[in-house]
Amino acid sequence: MTPVVRPPPVSGWSLVRRLSGGVALIAVLSLASQAWVMSLWLRPLLHEVGTLAAEQAVQLQVALQAVPPAARPALAQQLSNDRLQVSRSEPEGVHAMVPPPPPGMQALAEQLAAQGIEVFPLRPASPRAAIAFRLTVDQEDWWVLRTVEGPSGAVSGTLLAWSAVLALATMGALLVSVRLIARPIGQLAQEIGAQGGQQGRLQPLPLRSQDSVEIQSLVHAFNALAHQLSQGAQTRQQLLAGVSHDLRTPLARLRLRAETQCEGALSEALLTDLLALEHIVSQFLAYVQGDSEPFSGPQRPLNAVVHREVQRQVDAGHVLQADLQDLSQPVPELALSRLLGNLIDNARLHGGPPVSVQLRATAAGAAVRVSDGGPGMNASEFERAQQPFVRLTHTRATLGHCGLGLAIVAQLTHQLGGTLQADTSDDGRFGITLTLPAQGKEPGA
After folding, report:
1. Which of 97, 313, 315, 429 is geometrically suited to a Cys-Cys bond with 371, CB 3.0 to 4.6 A?
2. Distance, CA of 249 to CA of 215 (rounded, Å)
């Protein structure tokens, strides 16, 4: 079985960030367009206000000319109010600015200049706008300060109101977008990422009617892919199981004939080849059973399963060193025995003596390490050796090995929810460590 490949970390903007950026950009453009529309709307209003103020200045000039010079101060006082001030003194702030015509009053200012009236825009420390007119009356300078409720307050208030409305609309749009678009996609990604399930196969995803058409299409495509992979896996299992099972009977007959009808070196050579073929058939069956029935059989304490496998190897005449802690967490006996047997056989046949088995408790659960005195494998070779039907050297095929030993180990390790790691200890011994999760973790998840 191919080892589980973890997806690489993704980079870039998430869908939520892209939605947020898009909605925020729309809000900014909308606010800018509103400001531009309001500026267009304010231009005729400003022109109208300036025109009224200019007409009033002309009327004041005519009124001041109609009375004697001595009566003009009293008339100016009578005409002055909160919005209009008429006096001989120059208003504060006139010389602080170059006197260009106010916006929208260029043509009007030229007409007023012909009548001896100059226009000065002012910005006093007041929320109201002001326009100052200098009138020439009998070679005397009179100043008219006309203050109006400028549109700046209305503009700023409107813009603030629009900003608040757009902020609320943006937050609402983001919440709806995340709920209707980003969240279903995130849930679908989590469901696909959690695949592995029972027997390590892809499982069909539930189809929810409330999901969007695109999500439902993705679920349909994923379920079709899962079905195709399941059919392919079943076909492979049936092929391997059928071929392996059908080979057992003729192999048994050949072995019987080699033992009874052949003698000497020919008998030994035939028996050696038959043993190699039987080992290959056994590996095929173990690979198929490990993919289809990983948890068949009883659950037994971990230390008992490891001790039993070590004892079986010793009874078969193999030399092993064992250092086992008393760990009683239950494990599938058949799967772990097959896994550990393949690790020990791999160390014994392809490594160097002495072969040792160590069982230790870890913070995450338990670790079983099988080590030997051989040259071992580097990281690249270890990854390749876990692929089915991969042999690191061609000479191993003559021993009856078809490249399924570590593939079965990797397959069963994934089914048990564990991990494999190959390393060399401080004393130079190469070993493969099987780490099993603590009791209570679901295997194969």
Report:
1. 429
2. 52
What are the structural domain ranges in the chain? Answer: 18-155, 197-293, 298-445
The pLDDT of residue 445 is above 50: no
Q: What is the pLDDT of residue 58?
A: 85
What confidence tens digit (pLDDT) does each residue in 89-118 have?
887 766 544 455 555 556 667 777 777 778
Among candidates 210, 212, 171, 215, which has minimal Cα distance to 191? 215
Sign (positive/negative) of CA torsion 186, 190, 192, 193? positive
From the options 2.40.50, 3.40.50, 3.30.450, 3.30.720, give the CATH code of 18-155: 3.30.450
For residue 267, give both structure tokens: 């008998």
CATH of segment(s) 298-445: 3.30.565.10
List, for residues 300-314, the tens digit of each pLDDT value.
999 999 999 999 999
Cβ-Cβ contacts under 8 Å for 92 (sequence gap 6 or more): 124
Q: Are 426 and 398 in contact (CB under 8 A)?
A: no
Calculate the alpha carbon distances from 12 to 9, 16, 18, 30, 192 in Å: 10, 12, 10, 27, 20
Q: Which of 59-63, 262-266, 267-271 has the highest mean pLDDT?
A: 59-63
pLDDT at 297 over 50: yes
**8 Å CB contact between 75 and 67:** yes
Q: Which long-range contacts (CB under 8 A, 24 or more apart) does 166-174 make?
A: 166/27, 166/30, 166/31, 167/27, 169/27, 170/23, 170/24, 170/27, 173/23, 174/16, 174/19, 174/20, 174/23
Maximum C-alpha span of the chain:
154
What are the φ and ψ backbone dihedral angles of 440, each rounded to 5 degrees?
110, -15
**Distance between CA atoms of 363 and 113, rounded to whole angstroms?**
93
Q: Residue 291 above 90 pLDDT?
A: no
| Full DSSP string of 63-119 | HHHTS-GGGHHHHHHHH--SSEEEESSPPTTSTTS--PPPTT-HHHHHHHHHTTEEE
Query: What tokens appear for 124 in the block?
Result: 């006093």
| pLDDT at residue 370, as a whole number | 94
Percentage with pLDDT > 90 across the chain = 10
Per-residue pLDDT, 152: 54
Q: Beta strands 419-424 and 355-361: pairing type?
A: unpaired
Q: Which two tokens stand for residue 150?
A: 């400028």
- Does residue 390 contact residue 403 with C-beta atoms inside 8 Å? yes
Count of residues for the chain?
Answer: 445
Q: 197-293, what's its fold?
A: Helix Hairpins (1.10.287)
